[in-house]
Design a protein that fits this description.
By secondary structure, the chain is of the alpha+beta class. The chain has 28 helices and 31 strands. α3 crosses α5 and α24 runs antiparallel to α25. The longest helix is centred in the middle third of the chain and has 20 residues. The chain is globular. Bound molecules: arginine (ARG) and zinc ion (ZN).
């Protein structure tokens, strides 16, 4: 454990590595009480480095060093130094081999970084800095080497031995042991190294690439999961085809493997040729996975596969460049998902996540640009900003260049940098070089943190027929950054006439072929645009398709929002108008007595939606979701959660009571039947009937109760079964809730993914997830502190999704969270640091809440020997 204060690492201090590694030869001896790792590195002085002889410095963490060899000769202990996580060899020649033998204890590795054990199997997670927990190595992504890996283990306990690349040798050893040797022909940084050893079943398939090469596809899972692989395998094949067609990227090895692991800190990992997945992000069957889970699996399988080019063939120079691979790859997987399903719905889901959670991050104490300038612990920077905002920035480039030029830019980037470790600027440069589009000002998106705010005003000159739109942009201060420069913001918009028609957008009086949608380039603090030839003041439809990750303020009247909700030709903005209207209505009720009137037109609008069978039902299903409490908190200045919760509940109850018959009709109309399908239409239909059910149970409707109970019993898929369970859990029908929860657990108790759903349905419920109930979940035999998914499904879901319970005015929710963070900090600092997130937002809340949140943070800060991960988050939040 660390005793001194963690260091800050700066991008400005980047220097090239003093030594390069050309080849890595690894031999793992795996045993029950530990593992011995023999590593032989072929090293040479970096010609780009300093002229002066440098000591060789290797990174290491939690290693027991057994021996060091230089060019085959064992070094005496005074020839090297081992301290502060480093192995330093002072005198080394220009080129040499270094042998290092270390002993590690995977069975005691609870941090789940490096080599560890999960349900009896050995597996690895090396990104970002886990490889140093395996052996001493220059653990930085700009050192790229060819790896050869020999794994030795007991044959009966670990029949399957996997690593990156191709198997080149295998055989029997003494004492019932065996070995397999793998060779990866592609040079890679050590964060892409992987090893798996276990008793796993293999599922095989194959894929023929565009150039006719046959690729062996394999999934490895525990025997009990053998029937849950098909969907991921099919997703993989769709992703491989799509990447060829849309990005011209062909797979490069002869084998591609996916392994499912139950204990995993993140979603999945793109190790070269051997992707390792959190079980919950890859295993699925109709009976156990919801529609949302299927879609998530498809997206993550694609994401990790796409990394083979955007991440592995071209990787990051340093961890400040993380968004180079993550932002680009999220953009790629989002476009894939748009092509596989409903593009508008996918866009709505991504914008919702961004506006709810990334905007909050950008407005909080951990705000950072998509290319941060400094960090203490890189694991804390696998954020919504790096991933989702990073993807939005790539999407803006895509829209600025257009599809054809963007593809040329992407081809140039891959061709120019294949086999290299590069920077986000190299990416932007390739886009610029291929297209000729000036991205000079645009680069500020990489440097400046904070969400730009656009304040839009307008006036109409009736005599001249000119509509003038004025847009002001402001970027709020963030920690360490003030007085920001205006950014280049692509601002897509349309104008609607009184009859709902799209008006021609003439930026000058003589515009002959006016478009009805334009993308304006915002570059100045204030800019005005004049639209000519209009006979009436139009209704503006702004930031269509969410064309930039910004906030837009425009004083739409409720009348105008209702109008856009039913007339905007941009589906995204129809949805957005509905959200804005609902937000406005809920906000106006916060703190008001229950006698305050609820906007009557809201009921009409939702009735219209519920009965609108002409509109894309996938869009209708999204439009019926009221803005979440988390989003309402994000929008408020000084949030009073119980008051927000109460106002939102009032609106929900009001709508459900007024629309009861329409909800029942909607439910009937969407009564499934037929085979379970994952088409956008079928998904929308399930979403609609489950929303109707949820609303009916929200008002304890008796007919709704019957429907929920029978749906729960008869459902042939997890979406409907969980939809019914969730509705019952959130109703006032206590007996039905208990009966359904018990039945559900009994049926699925041996399936960890479903048990996680069962935990989270309760932890997220303001009816079933009050603190005493949360404590009971933690004591449940299925709960396991060592399993990150379980911790997330109870603790993180409680703090992040059960807002009224977490923000109990007595502060008990905050103290509870602080206690769990302190408990986890010693065993799994990455997960502990993530759990802190809700508390970091303390300044957002009304003082009585905020002060108690701050006190809880101080309680974490004062723990002895805090991990670097939690230290960084807590200290920055209190600064
Ligand atoms: N590169 C992985 C992905 O996005 C995530 C790895 C995260 N690891 C971590 N230690 N934070 O696909
Ligand atoms: Zn990724």
């Amino acid at each position: 454990m660390r005793t001194n204060q963690p260091q800050t690492i700066y991008l400005s201090e980047y220097t090239v590595p003093a030594y390069l590694v050309d080849h890595v030869d690894l031999r793992f001896e795996l045993f029950e009480d530990g593992a011995r790792v023999h590593s032989t590195l072929t090293i040479r002085r970096n010609p780009q480095g300093s002229e002066l002889a440098q000591p060789l410095v290797l990174d290491g963490d939690s290693l027991t060093l057994e021996a060091v060899h230089l060019n085959g000769d064992e070094l005496a202990p005074d020839a090297y130094e081992e301290h502060d996580g480093q192995l330093v060899v002072a005198n080394v020649p220009e080129a040499f081999t270094l042998g290092v033998v270390t002993w590690i204890e995977p069975q005691n590795n609870t941090r789940l970084e490096g080599l560890y054990k999960s349900s009896g199997m050995f597996c690895t997670q090396c990104e970002a800095e886990g490889f140093r927990c395996i052996t001493y190595y220059p653990d930085r992504p700009d050192v790229m080497a060819r790896f050869r890996t020999r794994i030795e283990a007991d044959r009966s306990a670990y029949p399957v031995l996997l690593s990156n690349g191709n198997p080149v040798e295998q055989g029997a050893l003494e004492d019932g042991r065996h070995f397999v040797t793998w060779e990866d022909p592609f040079p890679k940084p050590c964060y892409l190294f992987a090893l798996v050893a276990g008793d796993l079943v293999e599922k095989r398939d194959s894929f023929t690439t565009v150039s006719g090469r046959n690729i062996d596809l394999r999934m490895y899972v525990e025997p009990r999961n053998a029937e849950k692989c098909d969907f991921a395998m099919d997703s993989l094949k769709r992703a491989m085809r799509w990447d060829e067609e849309v990005f011209g990227r062909e797979y490069d090895l002869d084998i591609f493997m996916i392994v499912a692991v139950d204990d995993f800190n993140m979603g999945a990992m793109e190790n070269k040729g051997l992707n390792i997945f959190n079980s919950s992000c890859v295993l699925a069957s109709q009976d156990t996975a919801t529609d949302a889970a299927f879609q998530r699996i498809e997206a993550i399988v694609a994401h990790e596969y796409f990394h083979n080019w955007s991440g592995n063939r071209v990787t990051c120079r340093d961890w400040f460049q993380l968004s180079l691979k993550e932002g680009f790859t999220v953009f790629r997987d989002a476009r894939f998902s748009e092509d596989m399903g409903s593009p508008t719905v996918k866009r709505i889901e991504d914008a919702t996540l961004l506006r709810t959670a990334q905007f909050a991050e950008d407005a909080g104490p951990m705000a950072h640009p998509i290319r941060p300038a400094s960090y203490m612990e890189i694991s804390n920077f696998y954020t919504l900003t790096i991933y989702e905002k990073g993807a939005e920035v790539v999407r803006m480039i895509y829209n600025l260049l257009g599809p054809a030029a963007f593809r040329e830019g992407s081809d140039l980037y891959f061709q120019r940098h294949d086999g290299q470790a590069v920077t986000t600027d190299d990416f932007v440069q390739a886009m610029e070089d291929a297209s000729g589009v000036d991205l000079g000002q645009f680069r500020l998106w990489y440097e400046q943190a904070g969400t730009p705010v656009l304040t839009v005003s307008d006036d109409f000159d009736e005599a001249r027929g000119i509509y003038r739109l004025t847009v002001e942009q402001a970027i709020p201060d963030t920690p360490g950054q003030t007085d920001k420069k205006p950014q280049h913001i692509p601002f897509a918009l349309g104008l609607l006439g009184a009859g709902g028609e799209s008006l021609p957008l003439r930026l000058s009086a003589d515009d002959e072929a006016p478009q009805t949608e334009r993308v304006l380039d915002l570059r100045e603090p204030t800019q005005s645009f004049e639209f000519h030839g209009l006979s009436e003041k139009p209704v503006p439809s702004l930031l269509r398709h969410f064309s930039a990750p910004v906030r837009v303020n425009y004083p739409w009247t409720r009348e105008q929002l209702l109008f856009l909700m039913s007339h905007d030709p941009d589906g995204f903005n129809r949805w957005d108008a509905g959200q804005r209207l609902a937000v406005d209505v809920i906000q106006s009720l916060i703190g008001q007595p229950d006698s305050a009137e609820i906007e009557p037109r809201l009921v009409d609008a939702y009735r219209h939606l519920l009965n609108d069978t002409d509109l894309d039902q996938a869009l209708v299903a999204k439009m019926l979701q009221l803005p979440s409490e988390a989003y309402l908190v994000e929008l408020s200045e000084s949030a009073d959660v119980p008051a927000i919760h109460h106002a939102r509940e009032r609106v929900l109850n009001h709508l459900a009571v007024a629309l009861r018959d329409d909800l029942l009709a909607c439910y009937e109309r969407n009564q499934g039947g037929g085979d379970y399908q994952l088409t956008p239409t079928a998904i929308a239909s399930r979403s609609l009937r489950n929303t109707a059910l949820a609303w009916l149970l929200h008002i304890d409707d008796e007919r709704g109760r019957e429907l929920a109970n029978s749906q729960f019993e008869q459902a042939d898929n997890m979406t409907d079964r969980l939809g019914a369970l969730r509705a019952l859990v959130n109703s006032g029908f206590d007996e039905d809730r208990t009966r359904a929860l018990d039945a559900f657990y009994e049926r699925f108790s041996d399936d960890p993914q479903v048990v996680e759903l069962w935990f989270s349905v309760q932890a997220s419920s303001s009816k079933a997830g009050q603190l005493p109930q949360i404590h009971r979940l933690l004591e449940h035999p299925a709960f396991d502190w060592k399993n990150p998914n379980k911790v997330r499904s109870v603790v993180a879901v409680f703090a992040g999704q059960n807002l009224p319970a977490f923000h109990n005015p007595d502060g008990s929710g905050y103290n509870f969270l602080a206690e769990q963070v302190r408990r986890l900090d010693d065993s799994n600092p990455q997960i502990a640091a993530r759990l802190v997130t809700p508390l970091t937002r303390w300044r957002k809340f009304a003082p009585t809440y905020g002060q108690q949140m701050k006190a809880a943070l101080e309680g974490i800060r004062d723990k002895q020997s805090l991990s670097r991960d939690v230290y960084e988050v807590v200290h920055k939040s209190l600064a």
